[in-house]
Design goal:
Blueprint (H helix, E strand, L loop, with lengths): L14 E9 L5 E10 L1 E4 L2 E9 L26 E8 L10 H8 L21 E9 L1 E5 L4 E5 L3 E5 L4 E3 L6 E9 L14
Antiparallel strand pairs: 1-2, 3-4, 4-5, 5-11, 6-9, 6-11, 7-8, 7-10
C-alpha cells in the first residue's frame, strides 16, 4: 500500500505484551509465558503478530509449548482457532493492491463477484467465524454491495463473508482478531472461493 500520500500519527508500539496462563505440576495456576511479541509486515501497509493458535476443538489446554511459534496464513488450522493483532496503515486514494499477495497470505482464492466492491484487490473470504475488535483508530469494512465505518470499541462478528479492510483515515488502525474454523455456509456451497 502506498502510505506516503497521507500523514500518519505517532507510530504505535511495534510489540504486543502477551501473558499465557497454565498450570504447574501441582495444578496451581501460573503465568507460563510473559513477554513481548513483535508485529511484522505481512504485506505492504499491514503489520501483524500471532498471539496463539489451537489445532483442535475442544482446545487442548495442557502443555507449555508456545502455540504461536508457527507460520499461519490468515485462517486458523482446520478445526482450530487463532488470536492475532493487526495494524492497518492508512491507504492512499490511488491504492491498487495485489490480490496475489493476499491470496498467498490467506492460503485460498480471492473472491470476485458482481457487487460494487467485489473486485477490490483486498476482498477475500475464509470459512471462519471471526470476532474483530477495533482497539485503536478507525477503519471501513467493505462487503459486496455495502460498507460499514468502524471506530475504537466497535466489534464485528463475521460469518464467512466476502470483505475487505480499508483504512481511509490518517492514522493506523489496530484490531484484535479471534478466528475459529467453521463450515462453509450452505448458500455459498460450490462457489470455490473459501479456504
Amino acid at each position: 500500500m502506498n502510505t506516503n500520500d497521507k500523514p500518519t500519527a505517532a507510530k504505535m508500539a511495534t510489540t504486543i505484551r502477551r501473558i499465557v496462563t497454565g498450570h504447574d505440576t501441582n495444578g496451581m495456576s501460573v503465568a507460563l509465558m510473559v513477554g513481548e511479541l513483535p508485529l511484522a509486515e505481512v504485506q505492504p501497509g499491514v503489520d501483524t503478530t500471532l498471539l496463539w493458535a489451537t489445532d483442535e476443538t475442544p482446545a487442548d489446554m495442557s502443555g507449555s509449548n508456545d502455540r504461536a511459534q508457527r507460520d499461519l496464513g490468515v485462517a486458523p488450522p482446520p478445526n482450530g482457532s487463532l488470536l492475532r493483532i493487526v495494524d492497518f496503515h492508512p491507504v492512499s486514494k490511488d491504492f491498487k493492491g495485489d490480490s496475489k499477495v493476499l491470496a498467498a497470505e490467506i492460503g485460498g482464492e480471492i473472491v470476485k463477484g458482481n457487487g460494487k466492491n467485489s473486485n477490490h484487490p483486498l476482498m477475500h473470504r475464509t470459512n471462519t467465524i471471526d470476532y474483530g475488535i477495533v482497539l485503536e483508530g478507525e477503519i471501513d469494512i467493505l462487503f459486496d454491495d455495502s460498507e460499514v465505518h468502524l471506530k475504537a470499541g466497535d466489534i464485528v462478528v463475521q460469518q464467512s463473508t466476502n470483505h475487505a479492510w480499508v483504512n481511509n483515515s490518517d492514522k493506523i488502525c489496530r484490531m484484535a482478531f479471534a478466528m475459529i474454523d467453521g463450515v462453509e455456509p450452505p448458500v455459498l456451497k460450490g462457489r470455490g472461493d473459501g479456504h
